[in-house]
Amino acid sequence: MKFQEKEFQPVILGADITAYSLARAFHEEYGIKSITLSMTKSGFVNSSAIIENRFYPELEKEENAVKALLETGKEFEGKKKLIVFGCGDWYVRIVIENKDILSPYYIIPYIDRELLDRIVLKDHFYEIFEDLGLPYPKTYVYECGQENWKKPLNLGFDYPVIAKPANSALYHYAEFPGKRKVFKFDTEEELREMLKNLEGSGYDYKFLIQEFIPGDDSYMHVLTCYCDQNSKVQFASLGRTLLEDPTPTAIGNPVAIMNVVNPEIVADATKFLEHIGYTGFANFDVKVDPRDGSYKFFEINVRLGRSNFYVTGSGFNTVKWIVNDYIYGKLDSYTVADRPFIYSVVPKSVVKKYVPDSDFKKEALALWDKRRVCHPLMYKKDKNPMHIFYAEANFFHYIKKFKRYRG
């Protein structure tokens, strides 16, 4: 396979579907090969023809990640402009906290640490939303290490409730029985049992307990926005979730999305991002309440999300915004994605079986029939047989997941 030579080179921390989606976007748009720094020697990233995967054990540790990035940076010094991407909250934090060390070698399309700490800690994120009058769920902030899990909690709202960490990067390293990405509890006793286990996990920040917004997966939405270096929102793409991953440690990750348009949601996100002086990509989780049609913002990720290919697949290549902004200094006019399309890492049969019947489901299946659908790992130009094997294995792995957790 022949590759184009450009004045820039993407360097990606991680080897998950996020990493592959970024590498595919760069290859589709510019014909270049991406470099990934990862902890794996196998899988669809390591075997890809469009990726050079460099193995670094224990890359999650800050000193190892920084060392690996500096090693690659010095290799390309004076030759190409390197653009670094993190495929997990912990990787992004490492990059941001080491901007001074890394910036001589890399373009770092992320916010600074001060702003990161203001918004990625979800309790601070909601405080800003409160000040701006933007919608978010009623929330109780539990102080780990300061509150007694044995005492009743005066939440101010009824059960069932949702519970999740305020600091996702720190929570990544916590270990305790029954750990989940997000919890749902029907009683206070269930909640307090989890808090008891949490207190002994090493996680010492805040945990958020929130009102439960009813509605199945299809009421969840994911919004991707790009803010230029002047903190102006230049692009927005909204997707409505068809299905989420049923695995306890991955709950909340969309596995099938349909692109939709909602000017009100985009306007609220724009108000927030421009108010705080944001730069780079932001990814929001939003849920529409089926009881009255209102919506609530749940959280922000200061990076492209795991399912970011729902944007590129619909015809709006994500990496163009970063390259045009940081390399060429020229962005297209303000754009809102408006092309109905399906992103899916599960087969159509899973969507037909597990998505409740609705007009939304009918519309999604109709797009499928018109072949307006993409799977980020199924890339025709990536012809490495082992990549194809791992991509197909990942596809069928989801079938097993849904059978196990959804029946």
Summarize the structure in words.
The longest helix has 22 residues, at 385-406. The chain contains 15 helices and 17 strands. The chain is α/β, with parallel strands linked by helices. The protein is globular and about 60 Å long. Strands 10, 11, 12, 13, 14, 15, 16 and 17 form an eight-stranded mixed sheet that branches.
> Strand count, sense and closure of the main sheet?
8 strands, mixed
Could you report the average pLDDT, rounded to the nearest whole number?
Answer: 94
Structural class: alpha/beta
- How far the N terminus sits from the C terminus, by CA atoms, comes to 43 Å
Helix content: 25-40%
Question: Helices and strands in order, then pairings?
Answer:
Layout: E1 8-13, H1 17-30, E2 34-38, H2 43-46, E3 51-55, H3 62-76, E4 81-86, H4 89-97, H5 99-102, E5 106-107, H6 113-119, H7 122-132, E6 139-143, E7 161-165, H8 168-171, E8 183-185, H9 188-199, E9 206-211, E10 220-227, E11 233-244, E12 254-260, H10 263-276, E13 280-288, E14 295-301, H11 309-313, H12 318-326, E15 335-336, E16 342-344, H13 348-354, H14 359-369, E17 373-374, H15 385-406
Parallel strand pairs: 1-2, 1-4, 2-3, 4-5, 11-15, 16-17
Antiparallel strand pairs: 6-9, 7-8, 7-9, 10-11, 10-13, 11-12, 12-16, 13-14
